[in-house]
């Protein structure tokens, strides 16, 4: 019998030795490495997780030491001293379960790590033997710390949470690094029965079992001297740490898809990460999006649509779309956007970030700013004359437009061969101030002003304010009244430059990206740069306040705060905008109509029962509803006072007595050009019929002008340019200003306009 026993024992030892020698550590199971990306609102709460597996792997150092011991106390207190397999533990577990005691795992931490990482969850004897052999052998390749880290990252904790970071987020809305000993004790308890304990917040049976297991973990922590008896009693007295309510991931429904898309594009533009790398998961992306404001913007759009749009009863209401963006003018942070009906509704293009919708008369403030900074060549061959909001230009309908050389602009489509610029109504305005023309959105003064200021100066002003060069239309008269197609985000950002007294902040949507426990560089808030003198920006703001007080934007008075803004409408009413701001917030609303199956904007005549759709109507209604909610509880603030300017020049030809309008003031005026929705007049400096390009990465420089009342980046100005450097002066440049200057610059300044990211459908600027 002894010989037989020894022979048997020797055979077992031999088989064990053979099995150990022939066991190889397999490749990691790919499914155990799958991670998701987690996106956070501006307050740090989870917006959504993207990916098939809700997991974000973290370093062991990010898990508090005592929380690590919560797991070790519950599962494997001898982890740091055992060889990876605990035979006594397995036998003890069998005994406890058979006798009705606490449920215990018969496997060590190492064995559970091996099972989760290298094997399947199959309960066969063969799988168990492989688990034991690999566990004994894995210590030669990995340290105990690496094994524990892999275990914590690979366990399933319930609530669709894989890994301790996801578990901390779903149960306590905290990072793993923020867990307390008491919270860690509960999360450690979920590993054994995740499907039941995940409901500990709502199910009495689950809570009772979770409480018992939680007490067991704390008791074990005290017995192995990781906490004192007094500390254990403190945790017990404080009570069971009930987890937060379970809210499954919202996925990409509603606005979430657009928010995630915008943030992803920003991340890719500021790192070397590709779509494929992001798709592998494991990134924690913190955004600037304010949940309250995003919901308020979406609710305001929904309220407008419910009030005005009925596609089932009115065919004109079909395919109407809205895009919107809201920006903190002091930082450039995109706090809210509205991209469309939602990915779940099949609308994939982000209307807030897409180009293709002409901005209409909302472009006129850039004409005015350029006139203030550079002046206008009112007489051929003469220096630029200073311009102020009180400068008068001919506002009549159908007038011909002249360039800086005094030549009338041609229009091959007109019987006369000359461009006769149209307004929306045939009002006989006569010569009116640029302030009045802005308030009533009269086109002709601003087309003529633009030609006299010069395309390069106006384009440069718009780029410095924040627009991308390649979203701007080529050199045509229609350019000055909004044939360009920047995104709502970029238009909000450019108006934010006026709002922040001339300081431009690049729009940004991501504040921090964390991968594998390390924060990636490149996500500091962009620094503001001076785009124009504060006197220019504050003057434009003063004029835009007049638009709301007594012009086409009076509907925005419903906000009950100081507001500056501009309405915009384009040819045949194919788009309507309202862009407005308070000192705290700048928001752009666009509205247009496009059949998803056929590209190209359609007329919005009849939409909502309106014979003509102006920016003053439904877009302003959305803006007011949103801003009311977004600014609730914030103090009412005033804009800076408008600076005192010198005497501005008037367009030549002004009569001694200015005639009064002979027709009523229009409620809003569309940006009319010679040909609907296209450039008017010849394409100077450009070829191939002036087709407006698709916006892409852009950079370049424009040469500063020579005049200007307040001065700009060019030569001089009556007050000198704050950004002119050597080209400005306190008394004006040698070529500009009313009186000239002795201390001004001597050469034209060059202003660079740069953009790091492309815009277009689904692209973040």
Distance between the termini: 84 Å
The proportion of residues in beta strands is 5-15%
Mean pLDDT: 82
Shape: elongated
Spatial strand sequence of the major β-sheet: 2-1-3-11-12
Structural class of the helices, strands and pairings?
alpha+beta
Radius of gyration: 34 Å
The largest pleated sheet is described as: 5 strands, mixed
- Number of strand segments: 18
Number of helices: 22
**Helicity level:** 25-40%
Show unreliable segments. Answer: 662-765
Structure overview:
There is one protein chain. α11 runs antiparallel to α12. The protein has 765 residues and is an alpha+beta fold. A five-stranded mixed beta sheet has the order 2-1-3-11-12. A five-stranded antiparallel beta sheet has the order 5-4-16-15-14, with helices on both faces. Strands 6-9 form a two-stranded antiparallel sheet. The protein has helices at 2-22, 30-33, 65-75, 87-98, 109-118, 125-138, 144-154, 164-172, 181-190, 194-197, 204-223, 229-238, 256-270, 275-279, 291-308, 364-374, 434-439, 443-453, 455-465, 488-499, 534-550, 618-630, and strands at 37-40, 46-50, 283-287, 320-327, 334-338, 392-394, 399-400, 420-421, 431-433, 503-504, 510-515, 518-519, 529-530, 564-569, 575-581, 586-593, 699-703, 750-754.
């Amino acid at each position: 019998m002894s010989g037989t026993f020894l022979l048997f024992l020797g055979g077992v030892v031999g088989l064990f030795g053979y099995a150990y020698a022939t066991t190889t550590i397999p490749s990691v199971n790919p499914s155990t490495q799958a991670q998701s990306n987690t996106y956070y609102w501006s307050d740090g709460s989870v917006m959504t997780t993207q990916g098939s597996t809700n997991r974000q792997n973290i370093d062991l150092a990010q898990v508090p030491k005592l929380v690590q011991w919560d797991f070790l106390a519950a599962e494997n207190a001898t982890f740091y001293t055992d060889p990876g397999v605990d035979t006594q533990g397995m036998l003890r577990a069998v005994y406890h379960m058979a006798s009705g005691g606490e449920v215990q795992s018969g496997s060590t931490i190492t064995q559970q790590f091996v099972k989760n990482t290298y094997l399947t969850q199959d309960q066969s004897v063969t799988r168990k033997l492989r688990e034991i052999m690999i566990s004994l052998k894995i210590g030669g390749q990995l340290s105990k710390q690496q094994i524990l880290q892999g275990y914590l990252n690979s366990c399933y904790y319930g609530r669709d949470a894989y890994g301790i970071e996801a578990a901390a987020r779903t149960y306590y809305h905290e990072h793993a690094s923020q867990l307390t000993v008491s919270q860690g004790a509960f999360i450690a308890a979920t590993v054994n029965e995740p499907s039941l304990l995940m409901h500990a917040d709502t199910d009495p049976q689950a809570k009772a079992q979770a409480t018992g297991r939680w007490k067991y973990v704390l008791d074990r922590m005290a017995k192995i001297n990781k906490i004192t008896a007094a500390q254990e009693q403190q945790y017990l007295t404080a009570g069971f740490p009930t987890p937060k309510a379970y809210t499954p991931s919202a996925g990409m429904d509603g606005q979430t898809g657009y928010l995630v898309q915008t943030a992803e594009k920003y991340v890719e533009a500021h790192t070397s990460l590709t779509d494929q790398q992001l798709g592998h998961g494991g990134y924690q992306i913190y955004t600037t999006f304010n949940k309250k404001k995003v919901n308020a913007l979406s609710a305001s759009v929904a309220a407008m649509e419910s009030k005005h749009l009925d596609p089932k009863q009115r065919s004109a209401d079909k395919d109407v779309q809205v895009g919107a963006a809201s920006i903190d003018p002091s930082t450039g942070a995109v706090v809210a956007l509205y991209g469309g009906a939602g990915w779940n509704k099949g609308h994939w293009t982000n209307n807030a970030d897409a180009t293709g919708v002409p901005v209409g008369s909302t472009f006129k403030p850039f004409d005015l700013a350029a006139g203030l900074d550079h002046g206008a060549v009112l007489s051929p061959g003469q220096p630029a004359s200073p311009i102020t909001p009180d400068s008068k230009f001919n506002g009549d309908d159908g007038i011909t437009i002249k360039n800086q050389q005094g030549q009338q602009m041609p229009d091959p489509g007109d019987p006369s061969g000359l461009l006769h610029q149209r307004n929306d109504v045939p009002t006989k305005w006569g010569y009116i101030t640029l302030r009045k023309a802005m308030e009533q959105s009269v086109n002709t003064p601003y087309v003529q002003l633009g030609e006299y200021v010069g395309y390069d100066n106006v384009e440069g002003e718009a780029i410095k304010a924040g627009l991308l060069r390649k979203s701007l239309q080529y050199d045509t008269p229609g350019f000055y009244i909004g044939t360009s197609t920047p995104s709502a985000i970029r238009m909000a950002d450019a108006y934010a430059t006026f709002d922040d007294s001339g300081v431009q902040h690049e729009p940004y949507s991501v504040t921090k990206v964390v991968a594998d426990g390390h924060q990636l560089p490149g996500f500091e808030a962009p620094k503001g740069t001076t785009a124009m003198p504060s006197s220019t920006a504050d003057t434009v703001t003063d004029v835009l306040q007049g638009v709301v007080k007594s012009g086409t934007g009076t509907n925005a008075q419903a906000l009950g705060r100081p507001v500056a803004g501009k309405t915009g409408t384009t040819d045949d009413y194919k788009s309507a905008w309202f862009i407005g701001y308070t000192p705290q917030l700048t928001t752009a609303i666009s509205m247009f109509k496009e059949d998803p199956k056929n590209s190209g904007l359609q007329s919005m005549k009849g939409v909502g029962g309106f014979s003509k759709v102006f920016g003053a109507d439904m877009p302003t209604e959305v803006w007011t509803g949103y801003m009311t909610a977004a600014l609730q509880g914030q103090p009412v603030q005033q804009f800076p006072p408008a600076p005192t300017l010198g005497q501005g020049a008037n367009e030549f030809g002004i009569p001694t007595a200015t005639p009064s309008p002979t027709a009523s003031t229009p409620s809003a005026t569309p940006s009319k050009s010679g040909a609907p929705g296209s450039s008017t007049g010849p394409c100077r400096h450009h070829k191939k019929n002036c087709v407006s390009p698709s916006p892409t990465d852009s950079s370049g420089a424009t040469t500063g002008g020579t005049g200007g009342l307040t001065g700009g980046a060019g030569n001089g100005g009556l007050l000198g340019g704050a950004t002119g450097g050597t080209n400005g002066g306190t008394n004006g440049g040698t070529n500009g200003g009313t009186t000239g200057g002795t201390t001004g610059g001597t050469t034209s300044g060059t202003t660079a306009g740069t953009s790091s990211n492309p815009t277009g459908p689904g692209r973040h600027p």
